[in-house]
Recover the amino acids of this structure.
């Protein structure tokens, strides 16, 4: 059996990130990508994303790659993206959650009713803590619903497809029943900020700081990882490779921050901003960078937390082990059923956060919220490399998948493509992405 | 029916494992029907029998994969309650399953430490320490093993086997269960596994070896326990029997004393 | 498992919340409906429903409107006339509705009011009823059969009213059209009405499509799209894209219904444009009437479902008493929904069938007449006036 002959060829090990062992019949000289130890599929997706952006930029007469559109795109991606980070763990552990769209409606409705009808009875309207109480209650309810569904899957043994299909029906009905189908609007002023829009961004300076911290973290990670390998005697990447990754990575992060900060506050809002602070509002308008929108910040934080959980904690390791071989996991002494319940609980919490973002952004809770969202969330995870067979998937991939899907949708509206045709395109892209993925995997296996 | 003919010469020592009157039933089927076997330190006991004899089920009660319906297990003379794999490990029992029980999508170090991960001071996984330990282990067990970061799915049968063995051997096991360890291996690798078994026996471990390969059994085992349709036919010292007699036990359920020449002729027809 | 047991109580709490929610919703309507129907008065020509049973086949009670407005209105009118009310719910299934109609007939219905899930699929049931001498009233949704009486609001008129009130604010400028679900015939009815009125008022030759072939027309179409499921969040995303595409140079938005209008307003608000760009809607949702009061929505075309239900009940009793389809006359006071003609008129369906009909007039609600839906009991003053500066609109003193 062919064994790898070049130590450099070993990929960075992320469970389920599907690094290909090089040298398995592919010749002696490892390709550039493998020497950089980057996941080829993630790179492939980035290339695809770039291609999509360029195509839409041309087709839309130069509107797509503007700071404003990219800023909007980031916010539009947030809701699906947040939920996709949780769906990865569920699919990896050989389950599925079809109820997330309906849960979104129920949790959104719950938080809306709390804000507008229940909490004001004790605290009055516009109390500074209202948003926090509503959000906390929503998260608790999401965790409970998730745990409930997860327990039925794990302890009673009903397949996840069935349990969450039931959930899809039940929670949709509950969302309607909670307000007899009424739309609840508007939300609490502070709560609204979770959705972006006015006052819903972190501002220019904060964005630069976050970008700077991210670059520092990237470089720090590269350095410490290198040191660690040397200390334990493993082969590290060649120095030029580490430097290249550090430079390119930092450039991308700083570039993204620059694009985000290039979309200024819309002038009517800038005027209000100036008036509120007693600043002069000049003739030509004010250029006030908005910075990252709160939904995007929440998405990034969720992505970081979930990636950490998936790759650096025992819980994450067990989720992947269960996905790879549930029997082996049991025999290894892992509490598989409790782990499964936890994956559904986490999904519930993420859906609650996504529900907060979307009701804040819409400034309304409707019982029709999130219809068919479960499909988009699953599509995002799958486009991002998660395998429906279980055991394989990454969180950054799912976030990228959400970005790809949303880029397609927003781009298609920008060029005036009809709604049903948009669905056709998205469906085709989904199948193509998964097909490419399967072909790639098969070529890489022995 | 337990045979007493095969008590080892060292019967005054406390057995490492003493399984008494184990019963396991699935529905109305008695997979294991009142079987008693034991194991002493520094010996290999082969557990043999045809398909459906109940060997794997019996051994699963010791490895924690399946709880016995009745019967008792003693480890080092103390009663042992084993209801899950964790319990078994606590008693120093490590198992190499026939299917290897490896998670294909994660790498060798992660598999070796599955359920017993090494952690950093902050509580996160210490992948580097696990990889480093694995390298050491493999250096001793299988020096040609190189692919520490690849998912084990992409490794050869022999390499996967060595991962399973490394997992069983690393954690200071006293009792090792090996279920068909050479079934999927080529001759060179089979040899290596046999070497390893001998070495471990010398180190004082007790090994239950399930095998259908009569040559392996005769090469490695000190005693042989034969099962047929859930019952124990008998336990014999390897030194006291021939292969044909053992075969007769396996197929016909006859005790060595009762095996006639015509039975042996029948086997070879 | 104990932890989980406690956690499992929380979803149960959600269900309790749901039950409470729906109770609260129901409490308000009945009181005000009785007021409304009393004010409307009875059919003065001695019409009586004594001894008659009227069967109502609902398509899907899940939609808020039927339970809150239409059903109480029908029930009250039937009670006033002395007739009995029985009903079924088809749960959005056309097949189920066929069975439901049979059920109502076998329970002794003398006339039927059918809210059709599918105007074609229901035809066999209608013809079967007609064969048995049981007249049918097609309620709100068109049934493609001349055996059924058709009573509804004029959906094309809704579109015309939306366009009319927006045009009044913006006779010249960039328009965006946020349409309904492509598969829903109503979406095109509405867009057709909007187009008709805009061309009439502006004098343009049109058509008002995104390529703007009529170069001299003061109204320019800078964005138009259908909206999946009439969904609010989809409307918001689409509106964001239209604003981006046009660099915020949008002067008016004709949204075909209220749900989508909320999404449009959210997108405008993020650009600081809410209140300065006129937006239209339909349905009289509480949240949107509030937006009208706040000045963020210009017009909300409301259909007084109380009056629709009342009229339908009267018509059903008349038919049950033996009046012919073409001789129906409605004498109940239908307030602002009063049709152009209280006697039946022929109506040509898209399927080219002539049905006998009475078409009620929708009520455009602006800041001036918010009191109308409040008085009718469709919304409360608290809901409409939440956050509204006292005295800024007549309905919120």
């Amino acid at each position: 059996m062919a064994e790898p002959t070049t130590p450099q060829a070993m990929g960075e090990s992320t469970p389920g990130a599907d690094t290909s062992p090089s040298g398995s019949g592919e010749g002696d000289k490892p390709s550039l990508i493998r020497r950089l130890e980057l996941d080829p599929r993630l790179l492939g997706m980035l290339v695809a994303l770039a291609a999509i952006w360029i195509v839409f930029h041309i087709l839309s007469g130069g509107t797509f790659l503007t700071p404003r559109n990219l800023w909007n795109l980031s916010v539009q991606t947030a809701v699906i993206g947040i939920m996709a980070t949780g769906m990865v763990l569920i699919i990896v552990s050989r389950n599925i959650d079809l109820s997330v769209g309906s849960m979104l409606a129920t949790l959104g409705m719950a938080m809306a009713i709390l804000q507008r009808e229940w909490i004001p009875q004790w605290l009055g309207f516009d109390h500074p803590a209202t948003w926090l109480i509503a959000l906390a209650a929503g998260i608790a309810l999401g965790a409970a619903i998730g745990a409930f569904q997860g327990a039925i899957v794990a302890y009673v043994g009903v397949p996840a497809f069935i349990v969450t299909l039931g959930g899809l029906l039940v929670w949709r009905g509950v969302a309607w029943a909670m307000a007899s189908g009424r739309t609840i609007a508007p939300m609490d002023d502070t709560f609204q900020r979770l959705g972006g829009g006015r006052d819903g961004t972190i501002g220019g300076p904060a964005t630069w700081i976050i970008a700077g911290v991210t670059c520092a973290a990237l470089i720090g990670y590269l350095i410490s990882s290198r040191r660690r390998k040397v200390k334990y005697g493993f082969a590290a990447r060649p120095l030029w490779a580490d430097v290249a990754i550090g430079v390119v990575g930092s450039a991308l992060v700083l570039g993204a921050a620059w694009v985000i900060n290039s979309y200024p506050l819309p002038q009517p809002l800038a005027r209000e901003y100036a008036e509120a602070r007693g600043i002069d509002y000049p003739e030509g308008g004010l250029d006030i960078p908005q910075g990252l929108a709160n939904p995007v910040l929440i998405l990034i934080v969720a992505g970081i937390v979930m990636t950490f959980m998936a790759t650096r904690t025992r819980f994450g390791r067990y989720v992947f082990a269960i996905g790879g071989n549930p029997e082996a996991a049991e025999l290894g002494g892992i509490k598989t059923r409790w782990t499964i319940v936890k994956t559904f609980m986490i999904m519930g919490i993420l859906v609650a956060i996504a529900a907060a973002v979307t009701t804040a952004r819409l400034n309304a809770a409707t019982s029709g919220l999130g219809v068919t969202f479960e499909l988009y969330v699953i599509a995002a995870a799958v486009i991002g490399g998660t395998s429906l067979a279980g055991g394989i998937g990454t969180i950054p991939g799912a976030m990228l998948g959400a970005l790809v899907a949303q880029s397609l949708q927003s781009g298609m509206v920008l060029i005036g493509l009809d709604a049903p045709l948009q669905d056709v395109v998205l469906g085709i892209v989904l199948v193509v992405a998964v097909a490419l993925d399967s072909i790639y995997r098969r070529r890489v296996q022995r | 029916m337990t045979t007493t003919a095969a008590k080892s010469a060292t019967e005054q020592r406390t057995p490492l494992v003493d399984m008494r009157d184990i019963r396991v039933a699935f529905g109305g089927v008695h997979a294991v029907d009142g079987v008693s076997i034991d194991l002493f330190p520094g010996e290999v006991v082969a557990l043999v029998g045809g398909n459906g004899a109940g060997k794997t089920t019996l051994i699963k009660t010791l490895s924690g994969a399946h709880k016995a319906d009745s019967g008792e297990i003693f480890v080092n003379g103390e009663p042992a309650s084993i209801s899950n794999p964790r319990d078994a490990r606590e008693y120093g029992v490590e198992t190499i399953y026939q299917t290897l029980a490896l998670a294909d999508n994660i790498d060798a170090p992660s598999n070796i430490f599955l359920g017993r991960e090494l952690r950093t001071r902050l509580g996160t996984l210490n992948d580097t320490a696990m990889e480093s330990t694995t390298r050491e282990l493999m250096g001793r067990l299988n020096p040609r093993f190189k692919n520490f970061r690849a998912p084990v799915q992409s490794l050869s049968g022999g390499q996967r086997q060595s991962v399973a063995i490394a997992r069983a051997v690393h954690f200071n096991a006293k009792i090792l269960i090996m279920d068909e360890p050479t079934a999927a291996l080529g001759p060179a690798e089979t040899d290596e596994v046999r070497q390893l078994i001998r070495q471990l026996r010398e180190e004082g471990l007790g090994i239950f070896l399930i095998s259908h390969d009569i040559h392996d059994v005769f090469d490695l085992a000190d005693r042989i326990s034969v099962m047929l349709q859930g019952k124990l036919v008998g336990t014999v010292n390897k030194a006291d029997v021939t292969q044909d007699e053992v075969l007769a036990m396996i197929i016909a359920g006859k005790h060595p004393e009762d095996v006639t020449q015509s039975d042996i002729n029948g086997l070879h027809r | 498992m104990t932890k989980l047991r406690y956690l499992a109580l929380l979803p149960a709490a959600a269900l309790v919340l749901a039950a409470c929610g729906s109770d609260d919703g129901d409490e308000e309507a009945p009181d005000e409906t009785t007021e409304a129907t009393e004010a409307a008065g009875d059919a003065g020509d001695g019409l009586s429903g004594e001894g008659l049973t009227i069967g109502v086949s609902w398509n899907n009670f899940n939609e808020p409107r039927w339970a809150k407005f239409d059903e109480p209105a029908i029930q009250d009118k039937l009670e006033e006339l002395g007739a009995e009310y029985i009903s079924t719910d088809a749960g959005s299934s056309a097949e189920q509705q066929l069975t439901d109609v049979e059920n109502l007939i076998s329970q002794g219905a003398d006339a039927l009011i059918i809210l059709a899930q599918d105007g074609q699929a229901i035809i066999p049931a209608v013809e079967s009823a007609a064969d048995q001498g049981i007249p049918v009233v097609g309620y709100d949704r068109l049934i493609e059969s001349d055996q059924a009486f058709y009573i509804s609001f004029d959906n094309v008129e809704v579109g015309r009213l939306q366009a009319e009130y927006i045009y009044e604010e913006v006779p010249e400028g960039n328009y965006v059209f946020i349409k309904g679900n492509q598969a829903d015939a109503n979406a095109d009815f509405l867009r057709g009405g909007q187009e008709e009125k805009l061309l009439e008022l502006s004098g343009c030759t049109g058509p008002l499509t995104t390529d703007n072939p009529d170069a001299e027309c003061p109204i320019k179409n800078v964005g138009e799209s259908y909206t999946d499921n009439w969904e609010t969040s989809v409307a918001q995303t689409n509106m964001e894209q239209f604003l981006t595409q046009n660099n915020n140079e949008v002067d008016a938005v004709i949204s075909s219904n209220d749900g989508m209008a909320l999404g449009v307003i959210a997108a405008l608000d993020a650009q600081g444009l809410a209140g300065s760009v006129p937006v239209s809607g339909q349905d009289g949702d509480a949240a949107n009437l509030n937006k009208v009061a706040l000045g963020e929505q210009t017009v909300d075309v409301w259909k007084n479902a109380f009056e629709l239900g009342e009229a339908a009940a009267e018509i059903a009793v008349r038919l049950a008493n033996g009046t012919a389809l073409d001789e129906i006359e409605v004498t109940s006071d239908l307030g602002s929904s009063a049709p152009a003609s209280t006697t039946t008129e022929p109506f040509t369906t898209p399927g080219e069938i002539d049905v006998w009909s009475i078409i009620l007039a929708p009520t455009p609600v602006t800041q001036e007449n918010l009191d109308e839906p409040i008085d009718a009991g469709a919304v409360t003053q608290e809901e409409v006036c939440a956050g509204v500066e006292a005295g800024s609109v007549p309905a919120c003193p």
